[in-house]
Amino acid sequence: MTLVGQVTARALMRRLAVEQSGSRVPSIVAAIVRDGRIVWQAGRGRTTGPAGPDASRVAEGGEPTPATQYRLGSITKSMVAVVVMRLRDEGLLDLADPVGRHVPEARAGEATIAQLLSHTGGLTAEPPTDWWERTPGVPAGELLGRLGPGEVKHRPGRRYHYSNAGYALLGEVVARVRKAPWLEAVRAEVLEPLGMRDTTARPRPPHATGYAVHPYADVLLTEPEHDHGAMAPAGQLWSTAGDLARWASFVAGDTGGVLEAGTLAEMREPATVDDGDAWTGGYGLGLQLARHQGRRLAGHTGSMPGFLATVWADPAEATGALFLANTTSGVGRTLLFDLLAILDEHEPRLPREWAPQAADPGLLALTGLWHWGPAPFTLRLLPDRGLSLAPVSGGGRASRFVPREDGTWLGLDGYYAGETLRVAADHLDLNSFVFTREPYDPRAPIPGGAGEWHTPNA
């Protein structure tokens, strides 16, 4: 399926082919979504190889299609996180709750729900078991018994430390609060409403076989696949390019009623960064974040033995990109960034057509210049009776506001997010700061008073 032009499709296909060939990936499938629709998708390579232990033979299976399943790995975490946020929105838990409030036998239970979601809970990266990705999982009771205080590696909240074990705890939180297995909750509350019917806990035909590619020869090793028990919320699910495209649209903002738009936006807000001052990568609440050449992306990477996957969404452009591959390592980090850049280069999005909007005369009278002390600000009307207040010089303490039923205005973002704006006849009161039409207008009730402007020694 393709809704882009032939030149664009060729450029995208070449980039995918270069990745599959240069990185020696047995098979890879990729797609781009825009405005909730798949506009391009393609596959390359072979999904399965010969049966038996002979690793000297090359893969012989069919080409990947949008219906071919691959392992999602840690993209599973984001879907578990959505259920956690639904529980929060229903008032069944608070993000500030320590996990021990919902799982009392969690001996490392001081980390909060929010900290586990953002990998700042300080828990060990991997569970105290055998290599969990390559062995059958243990039951929740056994895992909880092993996650003692010694598995807390950092003070909760101190730093970003990716923790697969933390998401095992979140899966158990979902199970306790919902009184149903985590997978049942994810299926009923996320997958089915979004139409992701090809996303399952174990593979179903057609699916790709997971391989490791020898580093010094063009031969394959079949990787194991198991039910990971209590660790399953960290990376169990399998999915297809078609289903993952729907997920990309969800992360970009097409929530399908699964989450409120504001809750999804909260998940996409940076809770921590993982590369210090560079801030090219970070984590929100269940979603990885990336900044690349002006884009702010949300999504997640995924890896399990034999599989790699990544999905990124650009909410500002309602665009997303994804890939699924059956290799333990090798796909370059820039593949999806490059695919999005190719789409922009060949078929850039046109700006939305401007059209006049109806305006309340009372609000129209508020527009124009206001002053915070001597600093000039501009107040503009936004659609749906919203307001924007921003410094004339640009940047600084700019915020948008939406009306409340009591006649006040609520800050949406920027410095005044969550704060209250009150409008009076001769001034604006923004969380005690007084804005006036003239700098320090003496006719307005300015705390501390306002004298006359003068020249020193004149």
UniProtKB/TrEMBL annotation:
Tell me which Pfam families the record gives: Beta-lactamase, DUF7586
Chain residue ranges for the region called Disordered: 43-67
Q: Which residues cross the membrane?
A: none
Q: Does the keyword Cell wall biogenesis/degradation apply?
A: no
Q: Which SUPFAM superfamilies match?
A: beta-lactamase/transpeptidase-like (SSF56601)
Say yes or no: keyword Hydrolase present. Answer: yes
Q: What's the protein name?
A: Serine hydrolase
**Which organism's genome codes for this protein?**
Nonomuraea corallina
